[in-house]
Each structure stands twice: as structure tokens, then as C-alpha cells.
């Protein structure tokens, strides 16, 4: 028992040391990531269920650290949120995504929407709406082509503040989506007060959709709630044709996921859009 304890202890400190060193490396690395051009966006296609039309993309951030290699946004976004660097990262994402959208429009490709993830800190300490307005003017992208994805926790962070900013964005014509819907803590009354265009059904409910009656009941409830409130629906994490078919059958409008398309570099997304013109 003593032996195991000692091993356990040693293992624990090693883990802690590595974890802490890595965290510091990431935190320091993030500060230079933009200038050193280590960031990129990938684009995951979104399709209508049914006629299977390409309607949009979600922009997802990627970071290649010079020594550590690719780092998941699930790891570095929380760090950036904690040290406030998310505001610069968020600006970079908005800027890059809108320029990409403008580029596609200039090539007369089919019009698509682009979803962009917004963090609480961007809503908290930043004139997000001014920034978005300016970027739309600069790029000539119509506001409706932009969809900002917010989570329930983002909206609950400072509800009054969030509500005011969301109203401004809505007036600009920008679409708002509630991300990871069903996993947060917001009361349903928020759905009425926040000016949302659609709900994104979280992938945790989609994963076992065909096996789990409860997940199916929850997804069904979300779809009918959305319909009754006049909101659109998109399911994320769709990995099989069976899931897509079930979601379509249940009345979900759109989907994204590995079955339909992985997040891809801008060049691949452009090819996908060009192919969509032909058919
Ligand atoms: P999210 O907004 O919920 O994004 C969906 C995540 O699911 C993405 O992970 C995507 O690559 C992944 N995914 C897509 N299809 C499937 C599928 O069929 N199966 C499975 N298992 N996963 C799928 P990713 O790219 O690693 O991003 C993780 C999270 O990091 C995002 O979750 C989002 O919360 C955050 N994030 C990513 N980019 C940004 C950004 O530009 N700004 C902010 N604030 N957050 C971002
Ligand atoms: Ca998202
Ligand atoms: Ca999501
Ligand atoms: Ca998620």
C-alpha cells in the first residue's frame, strides 16, 4: 500500500508539473499566436436536412503551437478567457471569417451564412456591436449572412448587458444562435427575451439519438419548442446517415457533423461551394 501510495504521489506530481508547464507554455504562446501567424480558421459545412443543400459554415479556430503542435480550442479558449486574451483572439476570428465570407461573395459562389463562436468576455468588456458593424461595412457582407453563436452561460454572465448587446446586434440584422442548447442552465423564459434566430441542438443529445429514448424525447421537445417560438433548429455532431434521417423525420431543419462534413481549410470549403454551383 505504501509502495502504491508513493507511486501514486510521484505520478501525481509529474502530471501536475507537466500540466502546469503546458498551461504556462500555452498562456505565453497565445500572446504571440496572432503575430506569428499560428492561428487559422476551419469551416464546417451546414446542410438542410431533406434536400441536402449547403447553407452555411461554422468557423472554428485552430492553433498550431511551434513546439506542442495543434492545440484544441477546448483547451486554449478557456485559458484565453481567463487571461482576457480572448478579446484579441475573438477580433481576429471575426475579421478573418468576415473576409473569407466577402471573398466567397466576390467569387459569386452561392450565398452562405457563417457561424462564429462568441465568448462571454467578448460580450462583457468589448464594444462587440461597433466592431461587427464596422467589419460589415468594410467587407460589404450583408448582416444576415453572419450568425453569432452564443452559449447559455454567455447570456447568463450579465443578462442585462447581454440582452442590450443582443438587441443591438439584432437591429444590425445579424443572426443569433443559441449554441449547445439544452446543456446550460438558462430558464426557458430567456428564449423569449433574447432575440434568437435559432437553437443549436447539442451533440450530446444527438450521439445516442437512435439508442436512447430520453435523448430522443429531449431532441423532440427542443424541436417543437423552437417551432412554437418561430426559431430555426440545427443539430450538431451528426455522425451517421441514420442520425441525419431521424433528425429530419423529427422535424429538425439543418445539421452539421462528421457525416456531412468535417471542419475543413478555407480552400476545401471554397471547392465545396464551387461544386454546389454546378449541381
Ligand atoms: P462548439 O462551438 O460546440 O463546436 C463544435 C465542436 O464539435 C467543434 O470542436 C467541432 O470540430 C466538433 N464536431 C463537429 N462535428 C462533429 C461530430 O460529428 N462529432 C464530434 N464528436 N464532434 C464534432 P472544436 O473545433 O474542437 O471546438 C471546440 C469548442 O471550442 C467549440 O465548441 C467552441 O466552444 C470553441 N471554439 C472553437 N472555435 C472558437 C472561436 O473561434 N471562438 C470561441 N469563442 N470559441 C471557439
Ligand atoms: Ca459553436
Ligand atoms: Ca456547439
Ligand atoms: Ca459543444
UniProtKB/TrEMBL annotation:
GO molecular-function term, one example from the UniProt record: cyclic-guanylate-specific phosphodiesterase activity
Keywords for this protein: c-di-GMP, Coiled coil, Membrane, Transmembrane, Transmembrane helix
Transmembrane helix among keywords: yes
Single GO cellular component term: membrane
Biological process, per Gene Ontology: cellular response to nitric oxide; signal transduction
Residue span, EAL domain: 23-277
Subcellular location(s) per record: Membrane
Name of the protein in its database record: cyclic-guanylate-specific phosphodiesterase
Species this protein is from: Zobellella endophytica
Full protein segment contained here: 718 to 996 of 998
Amino acid at each position: 500500500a505504501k509502495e502504491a501510495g508513493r507511486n501514486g504521489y510521484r505520478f501525481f506530481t509529474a502530471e501536475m508539473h507537466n500540466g502546469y508547464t503546458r498551461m504556462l507554455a500555452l498562456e505565453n504562446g497565445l500572446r504571440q499566436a496572432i503575430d506569428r501567424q499560428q492561428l487559422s480558421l476551419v469551416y464546417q459545412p451546414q446542410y438542410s436536412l431533406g434536400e441536402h443543400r449547403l447553407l452555411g459554415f461554422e468557423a472554428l479556430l485552430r492553433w498550431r503551437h511551434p513546439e506542442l503542435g495543434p492545440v484544441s480550442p477546448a483547451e486554449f479558449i478557456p485559458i484565453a478567457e481567463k487571461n482576457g486574451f480572448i478579446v484579441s483572439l475573438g477580433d481576429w476570428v471575426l475579421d478573418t471569417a468576415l473576409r473569407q465570407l466577402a471573398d466567397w461573395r466576390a467569387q459569386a459562389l452561392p450565398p452562405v451564412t457563417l457561424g462564429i463562436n462568441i465568448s462571454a468576455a467578448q460580450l462583457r468588456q468589448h464594444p462587440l456591436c461597433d466592431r461587427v458593424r464596422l467589419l460589415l461595412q468594410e467587407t460589404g457582407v450583408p448582416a444576415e449572412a453572419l450568425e453569432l453563436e452564443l452559449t447559455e452561460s454567455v447570456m447568463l454572465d450579465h443578462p442585462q448587458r447581454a440582452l442590450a448587446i443582443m438587441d443591438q446586434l439584432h437591429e444590425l440584422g445579424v443572426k443569433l444562435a443559441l449554441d449547445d442548447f439544452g446543456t446550460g442552465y438558462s430558464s426557458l423564459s430567456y428564449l423569449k427575451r433574447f432575440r434568437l434566430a435559432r437553437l443549436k441542438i447539442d451533440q450530446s443529445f444527438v450521439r445516442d439519438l437512435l439508442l436512447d429514448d430520453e435523448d430522443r424525447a429531449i431532441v423532440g421537445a427542443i424541436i417543437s419548442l423552437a417551432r412554437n417560438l418561430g426559431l430555426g433548429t440545427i443539430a450538431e455532431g451528426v455522425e451517421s446517415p441514420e442520425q441525419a434521417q431521424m433528425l429530419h423525420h423529427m422535424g429538425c431543419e439543418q445539421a452539421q457533423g462528421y457525416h456531412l462534413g468535417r471542419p475543413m481549410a478555407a480552400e476545401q470549403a471554397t471547392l465545396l461551394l464551387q461544386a454546389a454551383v454546378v449541381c
